[in-house]
Write a structure and sequence with these properties.
The complex is a heterodimer of chains A (about 375) and B (about 350). Chain A has five helices and 25 strands. Chain A has about 375 residues and is mainly beta. The radius of gyration of chain A is 31 Å and the shape is elongated. A five-stranded antiparallel sheet of chain B has the order 1-10-4-3-2, with no helix packed on it. Chain B starts with a helix and ends with a strand. Classes of the chains: A mainly beta (about 375), B mainly beta (about 350). At the A-B interface, strand 5, strand 14, strand 15, helix 4 and helix 5 of A face helix 2, strand 9, strand 11, strand 14 and strand 15 of B.
Chain lengths: ~375, ~350
């Protein structure tokens, strides 16, 4: 019996070999589990190397002689990977990463006639449980008053989260603390940003829309003039498999439904003076979708060219600020807004979330942009 | 959905050709497809397998072996997640089975699997071999094509792909954005063309006459309705809607006909079409009520639903309670269906093939 202990940062490699044959061969585990490092059988005889070489060339039967398994209660298939013969050793490189804190066993059986024994070695890449540090940073929309036909919420996390468990850990509670039945629509493929730090939650649109069966049977998920609390429990695991640092909650009240498209004519513009790079502030009479606001409004100069600059969203998603990279000049500018920009209830400039059905009109023509001109002038 | 293949021959003579997209057809590349993630699967003709890669906002086509072991024919594997996890060097909690599909020629069952989660996750294509074991298919030295879907120009926007259907020379891709709520159906010529992906088709249907919606499609399948090619789509809300395939052109706005209302609290997962004893049916799996069997004799005749009312309406259906807990479902030939089930009692997974009800 041989034991090896190797310290590697938070990682401890623990291996044990049991040699049940008189052969000289030895199994060597990688010292680093991060990069799909290889497991090797070393000290092979020339005749063994030759026989293994033939099997490798024929691409058949090599896993009968050398294979790595996850240690499990019942029989499991060998790990997927590839073999190589070099420097007098047979190497197995797994196709996927090693999992920390899991027991693996490697078994080698010589292909030579008369070699009956099996060389066996177990290994575990021990990693200390990392500290719980990930937390919910905020929720959007952030306003204290939201329309009862709210369509979408975004949850922001401080670090990437594990996918596939969102709907077990997010709940919407009513004023009595009772969970709202299936408030959010569960999608098998959860709606994350690429980094896994922002989750989109959709309130069930079938229940928001009037006349649909789910609406008629269960009613809308939110009712007007009520208090609700979005609750995230700390059992939700981040990408490292560690719980959140703490639970999170966010309360809001509901108002009557919003069924109107936004209107640029109602936006208040706070114009910067020429010659500087002060912010252009645009205030909306209602909050708009925070994610869409980041990318759906542009400022065009007099020649119709979009300006470069930095966008910030404030005042609970009712303020859009733009700081250009070059100073404002005296003259005409234009705000160009993507007609698909939505308010909190999914009403866009192109169409309200619910549109009256007309058997004769057909779907309306697509509106691509709405614009609002403004003039920068000397004070 | 594999049912598309059965229907190709049924419909070919009556379908109206769709104008091909602009742009030269893509050539096959050889090597390792740069797959970032793996989701929905669908087989096309001649063993071509389509894979959705939502992370890369792409669909891939790969060539697969035509010879096989018909492994899907008599399948019964307990705890397939434990076996697949071991194959991928980990435990069942660290894998997700995203979809299953049966190769129409070789009869082998393929599984789309994600190992790990989030940015550190790795996609895996796994196959059931002739002995009922699992085999990891290394995507190296293969012929492939990648078609990027125009979307996601920044870190925040992501496009999930809810279903793929190949039919009559085109791949239909239904998607859902994490920032916009809309129907998002793409119709891609196959072989893919080199041009930029066209604007998605906007599809509408009436919500009982009062309002119209552009809700995202959850699952869909090609279906012959009175000699004309249609898509039958099921929504996250509960209606079943039909669209004429000739109307589904890039950039078009299309209105569908609501033919059934399946009752609330039920979310459709997968659909397939089949024939039994001379009658045609659609089999649909649901989040809540297991699997339902919808006779489609009247799918062309049923009047469009236009009256608000609670409960079931339009085409009727039977519930198949023996199939409660179906997570994934796909056609396995004209008489069988392959299913991944979470057993209601033991909560364990089971992968099996059963006779169509």
């Amino acid at each position: 019996m041989v034991s090896t202990h190797a310290f590697l940062g938070p990682l401890l490699l623990v291996c044990a070999s049991a040699c049940r044959s008189t052969e000289a061969a030895q199994i060597l585990w990688p010292s680093d589990f991060q990069a799909r490092q290889v497991v090797q059988v070393r000290h092979l005889k020339d005749a063994e190397l030759e026989a293994l070489g033939s099997l490798l060339e024929a691409r058949a039967g090599l896993e009968q002689h050398f294979a790595v398994h996850v240690v499990a209660a019942g029989p499991t298939p060998p790990m997927a990977g590839s073999y190589r013969l070099e420097g007098g050793a047979l190497s197995f490189q797994p196709s996927f990463d090693w999992t920390p804190n899991l027991d693996y066993v490697a078994r080698y059986r010589s292909p030579l006639a008369g070699s009956l024994g099996t060389l066996e070695s177990e290994c575990r890449f021990v990693q200390a449980e990392p500290e719980a540090s990930t937390q919910v940073l905020r929720v959007s929309p952030s306003a204290a008053l939201l329309p009862e036909n709210l369509l979408r919420m975004y949850l922001y996390f401080s670090a990437p989260m594990r996918r596939g468990q969102a709907y077990e850990h997010v709940r919407l509670l009513d004023a009595e603390g009772v969970p709202v039945h299936e408030a959010f629509i569960p999608f098998q493929q959860e709606l994350w940003n690429h980094a896994g730090t922002r989750l989109t939650l959709l309130l069930d649109p079938g229940r928001i829309k009037r006349g649909l069966v789910p609406n008629l049977e269960f009613g809308a998920p939110l009712q007007a003039d009520q208090r609700y609390t979005l609750v995230v429990d700390s059992g939700w695991l981040d990408e490292r498999g560690v719980r959140l640092r703490e639970a999170f909650s966010h309360s809001f009240r509901t108002t009557s439904p919003d069924r109107e498209s936004p209107d640029v004519a109602l936006w208040e513009l706070e114009l910067p003076p020429p010659g500087g790079m002060q912010a252009l502030n645009v205030r909306f009479p209602e909050a708009l979708d925070q994610a869409q606001l980041q990318r759906m409004i542009e400022v065009l100069d007099g020649a119709g060219e979009p300006l470069e600059g930095r966008v910030t969203i404030g005042e609970m998603e009712a303020l859009w600020s733009f700081v250009p990279v070059v100073p404002w000049r005296v003259g005409a500018y234009e705000l160009r807004v993507d007609a698909l920009l939505e308010d909190l209830a999914g009403n866009s400039f192109a169409r309200a979330f619910e549109q009256e059905w007309s058997a004769h009109s057909g779907p309306q023509e697509t509106l691509e942009h709405v614009t609002r001109g403004f003039l920068i002038s000397d004070p | 959905m594999l049912s598309s293949l059965l229907l190709v021959s049924l419909i070919a003579s009556s379908s109206t050709p769709i104008p091909s997209d602009l742009g030269q057809p893509m050539e096959w590349s050889h090597g390792q497809p740069p797959l970032e993630s793996i989701g929905e699967l669908a087989f096309g003709e001649a063993g071509i397998l389509f894979l959705a890669d939502p992370q890369a906002a792409s669909v891939f086509a790969i060539k697969t072996e035509l010879e096989g072991s018909q492994s899907a024919l008599n399948l019964l594997i307990e705890a397939p997640d434990v076996q697949i996890a071991a194959l991928l060097g980990t435990t069942a909690v660290n894998i997700t089975i995203n979809d299953i599909a049966v190769h129409p020629k070789s009869g082998d069952l393929y599984l789309s699997v994600t190992r790990g989660s989030g940015t550190g996750s790795q996609p895996a294509l796994v196959m059931v071999d002739g002995s009922g074991g699992f085999k990891h298919l290394k995507l190296e030295n293969i012929d492939f094509m990648q078609k990027r879907l125009s979307a996601a120009a920044d870190d925040q926007r992501a496009q999930s792909i809810t279903d793929l259907v190949y039919f009559d020379g085109r791949l239909y891709v239904a998607g859902l954005s994490n920032e916009e709520f809309a129907s998002n159906l793409r119709s891609l010529a196959f072989p893919f063309d080199q041009g930029q992906d066209k604007t998605p088709i906007e599809i509408y249907h009436a919500n009982h006459g009062a309002y119209e919606t552009r809700a995202p499609i959850r699952t869909f399948l090609p279906y012959d309705i009175e000699g004309e090619a249609h898509l039958v789509a099921a929504y996250t809300c509960t209606p079943l809607v039909t669209f004429s395939v000739t109307d589904l052109k890039p950039g078009q706005k299309v209105r569908g006909k609501t033919v059934a209302e399946l009752g609330g609290g039920n979310r459709p997962l997968d659909m397939l079409g089949y024939e039994k004893n001379g009658e045609r049916f659609i089999l649909m799996s649901n989040s809540r009520h297991g699997v339902i069997k919808i006779p489609t004799k009247d799918i062309g005749k049923v009047p469009a639903l236009n009256q608000p009312a609670a409960g079931k309406q339009g085409l009727g259906y039977d519930s198949i309670h023996e199939l409660d807990g179906v997570l994934q479902m796909t056609s396995a030939g004209p008489q069988a269906v392959a299913v991944l089930i979470r057993e209601p009692d033991s909560k364990g997974l089971m992968l099996g093939t059963i006779e169509l009800p």
